[in-house]
Design a protein that fits this description.
Layout: H1 8-36, H2 60-71, E1 74-79, E2 82-87, H3 90-99, H4 111-116, H5 130-143, H6 146-151, H7 153-171, H8 183-200, H9 215-230, H10 234-237, H11 249-278, H12 287-296, H13 307-318, H14 323-329, H15 335-341, E3 411-412, E4 415-416, E5 419-421, E6 427-432
Antiparallel strand pairs: 1-2, 3-4, 4-5, 5-6
Helix pairs in contact: 7-8, 9-11, 12-13
Length: 437
């Protein structure tokens, strides 16, 4: 029995399969060879598609901190398709942010930057280039300079006084007692009011303001904007998931961006109307006026600023006064921290005059007195104590023992040369072991 002769279609199919297999093997070998020549920092082994995203929880900074305890201050992760280097100590952060800053200066192009900041028109998501350098100069010289912030000092003072009045009214009970007050809500409101007045010229968080959004909608819009700009979007790490939007964040970004654009358009129109009404007598009262003046006179700038850039700058400036900063500043330290912080710092504070912001280098968290050089404390006999040895860095040897370093034979179990330690941290004189205080 004779076998049928193979057709040309069979030869073509075999050739295509063999060619595709050879091409795939070649690509995989070249990719493996290119990845083997780099020595990456230690880190967990990534999975094929998701990388190390399975190790990141709802609070990414907490998850990364726990991983740094295991893999060291410098570790490598893989978020989907992108390699990530994490620095968890001062020295490694200095290497990334100062020594090799040009290698890490570009920002990732995320969905939040495209949809919530007018296609990365602000400062945070803008890639490094002429526009980014110009934006940084504007922030340092025009928007957030010392002269500009000092001219808006009355805004901060007025809002702080208004907050104190609201706290007094909220804490006063009808029967003459006192009620508990949620300080976080009041701090958030004063933060929002200060940002609104400094950037936009007036408060848009109170009833009766000419705003297209109610105060409740405005607060929800700001909270939604901050949340979507700080959330971990899986579609940014795995690009082929972007059309699917598995977490629904892109849909929320588009909705909040549309509402925020309608609000900012109303604010820009109000400022332009005031500029046309005042004419030559116009004086910039807030940061929105400064940006609009720069946009109308492009000869002063290297890269022209458009209307969307003005709105993107406004959003970038508002992020400097987020709720997390106010919550951190409202944290109250312990009794020892309060005592050391307020040593001599009550000058000008009392029942007569209100506290003011520091006016010069002599005023700070230690008061308005003259700055004195700290003198070394003296021990017994009038001889100065040796300085405390510096903290060790990664890989450094242990410091040599100094005159103040006690030896292991003298210090054991809370006893110093036969004397018991005082509860405050010092041993009493002539207090022998076993003697009751």
């Amino acid at each position: 029995m004779e076998l049928p002769a193979p057709s040309s279609a069979s030869f073509f199919l075999v050739a295509v399969v063999a060619g595709a297999t050879l091409f795939l093997v070649t690509v995989l070998r070249l990719r493996a060879r290119s990845t083997r020549k780099y020595r990456l920092p230690p880190g967990p082994r990534p999975w094929p598609v998701i990388g190390n995203l399975n190790l990141i929880g709802p609070l990414p900074h907490h998850s990364v901190h726990e991983l740094s305890k295991r893999y060291g201050p410098l570790m490598s992760l893989r978020f989907g398709s992108f390699p990530v280097v994490v620095a968890s100590s001062i020295d490694t952060a200095r290497l990334i942010l100062k020594t090799h800053d040009l290698a890490f200066i570009d920002r990732p192009q995320t969905a939040a930057g495209r949809y919530t900041t007018y296609n990365c028109a602000g400062l945070f998501y803008q890639p490094y280039g002429a526009y980014w350098r110009q934006a940084r100069r504007l922030c340092q010289a025009e928007l957030f300079s010392a002269r500009r912030l000092m001219s808006l000092e009355h805004v901060r003072s007025d809002e702080v006084r208004a907050m104190l009045s609201d706290l007094r009214a909220a804490a006063s009970a009808p029967a003459g007692g006192h009620d508990a007050v949620t300080l976080r809500e009041h701090l958030y409101m004063v933060n929002l009011s200060v940002v609104s007045r400094m950037l936009l010229g007036k408060k848009y968080v109170v009833e009766g303001s000419s705003s297209p959004a109610t105060p409740e909608e405005f607060r929800w819009l700001i909270d939604e904007h901050f949340f979507l700009n700080g959330v971990l979007n899986v579609a940014d790490m795995i690009p082929w998931l972007s059309p699917l939007d598995p977490q629904g964040y892109v849909k929320r970004m588009k909705r909040s961006a549309k509402m925020l654009d309608r609000f900012l358009e109303h604010v820009v129109d109000e400022h332009n109307e005031r500029r046309r009404r005042e004419g030559e007598d116009f004086v910039a009262m807030d940061m929105m006026d400064v940006l609009l003046e720069l946009a109308d006179d492009p000869s002063q700038l290297e890269v022209p600023i458009t209307r969307d850039n003005v709105k993107g700058f406004t959003l970038s400036s508002a992020k400097h006064k987020s709720r997390l900063m106010m919550e951190w500043s409202s944290c109250t330290p312990g009794p020892d921290g309060r005592r050391h912080r307020h040593l001599g710092g009550d000058c000008g504070v009392g029942h007569v005059r209100a506290p003011e912001e520091p006016r010069g280098p002599r005023q700070g968290h230690r008061g308005a007195g003259p700055c004195r050089r700290p003198q070394p404390s003296c021990g017994r006999g009038g001889h100065p104590k040796p300085p405390v040895p510096r903290r060790r860095r990664e890989g450094d040897l242990a410091p040599a023992p100094s005159r103040a370093a006690p030896d292991s034979a003298a210090v054991s179990g809370g006893r110093v040369r036969g004397r018991l330690r005082h509860p405050g941290g010092r041993a009493r004189l002539r207090q022998r072991l076993g003697h009751r205080p």
